[in-house]
Write a structure and sequence with these properties.
Blueprint: H1 2-16, E1 21-31, H2 36-44, E2 53-57, E3 61-72, E4 75-94, E5 97-117, E6 121-123, E7 126-153, E8 156-157, E9 165-187, E10 192-204, E11 208-210, E12 213-218, E13 226-238
Antiparallel strand pairs: 1-3, 1-13, 2-4, 3-4, 4-5, 5-7, 6-7, 7-8, 7-9, 9-10, 9-11, 10-13, 11-12
Amino acid sequence: MKRLIIVFFLLTGSFAGNAQKITVEYNAGFGSYNMSGMKDLLNTMLPELNGVKTTDNFPGYLMHDMRIGFEWKRHQLGGLFDYMNTAGKKGVSDYSGDYSLVIRTKGYKAGIFYRYALTDVLLGELHLQPYLEMSSGMIFNNVNLKESLHYNISGNPAPENVPGMEEQLKFTGPNFFLAPAIGARLKLCSSVAVNLSIGYEWDAVKKLYMDGDKSKKLTKNADWSGFRAQGGLIFYIPLY
């Protein structure tokens, strides 16, 4: 992480000297997530109960993306900050009680991105700029695992002497990501543009460790690899 920060400041420091504009943008989109390790964990945790069904199996979900950068001619370079989340759930419930297992996975992404505008197409008073993009950095994972089992007697909450169980564990760990993309900016005016892009993210995953006890690790990992599609707004602040 320290190396990534050093590289970011070296690149942006030299680039900012020639930059013509500061860019601030927000994008929202949809991501599909591999999560094979988390899916295996959900499937292998099988209680000795009948009728347990999976209701969520780490589906793709809405993601949020914030970026700050510098633009110079056809080049754009800056930092990005993303938030992603998904979950796996299974359980069963009837007159005798209920069982549930929830594995919620969150990813906080920080990295750098570079864009190169291929051309500038004039559409009346609007400017359409298709571009190529590459981004890279770290994802800080937060995995919460909650398992609970409760019994009922004649439909009433069970007294303290009736067995029950509730356990919650938290695991953390980083991933390295690389994400190529293609997109286009439609400049509505000199200060605002609409942005659309599609791409693919590849994660180099690492082990997840129990929060507060690094000697204990999870045998599965959080893999956010998958396709990305997003859109948003870019705001331009001229430097001179």
